[in-house]
Amino acid sequence: MDDWLPLVTIPVFTGVVGWLINWSGLIMLFSPVQFHGTRVPGLAQLAKVLPRKAQEVPGLLHGGIGWQGIVPARAAKMGSIAVDKAIAKLGTPREFYQQLEPDRIAEHIVTVFEPDMPQVVEEIMEREHPRLWRDLPPWGRQAVIVRVQAQLPIVVRNVTDQIGEHIDQLLDPKIMVIDQFRADPSLVVRIFRDFGERELRLMVNFGFIFGFLLGIPVAVVDSVFHQWWLLPILGVLVGWATNALGMWLIFEPPEPRKYGPFTAHGLFPRRQAEAADVYADIIATDVITLEHIGDFLLDGPRGDRTRYLLAESMRPAIDRAAGPARAMVRVAVGTEKFDNIRDSIAQVAVDRTITPFRDPEFSRQQATKIRDLVARRTKELPPKDFVEMMRAAIREDEWMLYAHGAIMGFGGGVLHLLIFGVGG
């Protein structure tokens, strides 16, 4: 019996190691969200001459020795591929904007902006032409304010129409998604964990099964050849294969495939519909929101163009607000001064009309429309594109998981050798 004990413990060892490999592999995938480690002087320069695969180790190119979860470390990349593979197919910027109901946005802007209009007019007139404003009788000032307020719904509707008409040039969902994922890598972690926790837990348990089954031929080979180096070397193969099988179990095949009496289907793609709802909720709540759209329109890379376009669209309405007195006011204050007053009102109006975009409560109300659009289109994605979108964050870094499995497999083989000796 003593002769058989070392032999039968080999599959048990490889099974436990397989479980540990997949359990620790999940930690490597998702934790920590931010880089944890130590900066080493000169390492960033040295890393640039290392092989490309080595440069992919989180933190190395920035001169740090430590770790960041593979998924959060590649959050921006996943955002980029998610746009190319999915969001670009989910809808154009115009479709996203229309889902937010521009008419409701316009009504909300008027509701928020209208009470502030008298103060806005007062401030601008006091700044640009205080003497003229002071010389006007109270009823004259009130008449100006009333005319400007009367034009407000027209101005605001013109603003939302102009945004909608030029939204494809003003809004870039790809940059929005990449920026949000880069700023908050935990969003990508949530996408995996919120719908895939059961599958990820199953993958860990399968690590024991895969390891145990792969350990059976290892035990046979070891019992035949009795070489001290066999267990560590075969442990490397078992560790590598265990992680590879775990990744295959999650993602492959994208569509059901028959193997004799058995049907194989990746754990994630078989739940594409549920994943679509989770994905859509995160995109609509934290990424492509009305609040973020407003920030991007005014403060993003195309913000200057947005401000110019909106100010230009407001000037005719401001001229109309001046009414019959426009010509007299222009003569009284001078053409340049009149234009300054008009431009100041337009610039302030641009900021004030976009401010309601940044209203978190209103943004949450409008998020339902985006959520429905993203969920519907994600469910319609071809399974191959869905898998690519989900796997994008880790595909190029899977070698680290396999290397981690191989190292642990080697360690398991050495440990068994130390306990039971050669021939076990």
> Helix/strand-derived class?
mainly alpha
Oligomer: single chain
What integer is the average pLDDT?
78
How many helical elements?
A: 21
Determine the N-to-C terminus distance.
12 Å
Q: Can you list the strand order of the major beta sheet?
A: 1-2
Rg from alpha-carbon coordinates: 31 Å
- Compressed to H and E, one letter per element, the order equals HEHHEHHHHHHHHHHEEHHHHHHHH
The largest β sheet comes out as: 2 strands, antiparallel
Q: Could you list the spans in which at least 5 consecutive residues all have pLDDT below 50?
A: none
Global geometry: elongated
Q: DSSP strand (E) fraction?
A: under 5%
Residue share in helix: over 70%
Q: Write down how many β-strands occur, each being a DSSP E stretch of 2 or more residues.
A: 4
What are the salient characteristics of this protein?
4 strands, two-stranded antiparallel sheet, two-stranded antiparallel ribbon, 424 residues, 77% helix, mainly alpha, elongated, 2 domains
Secondary structure layout plus pairing:
Elements: H1 5-30, E1 36-39, H2 43-47, H3 52-55, E2 64-67, H4 70-73, H5 75-90, H6 93-99, H7 102-113, H8 117-128, H9 130-135, H10 138-170, H11 173-183, H12 186-225, H13 230-251, E3 257-259, E4 262-264, H14 272-287, H15 290-299, H16 303-322, H17 326-333, H18 335-354, H19 360-380, H20 383-391, H21 398-420
Antiparallel strand pairs: 1-2, 3-4
Helix pairs in contact: 1-12, 1-13, 1-21, 5-11, 5-19, 5-20, 6-10, 7-10, 8-10, 8-18, 10-16, 12-13, 12-14, 13-21, 14-19, 15-16, 16-18, 17-18
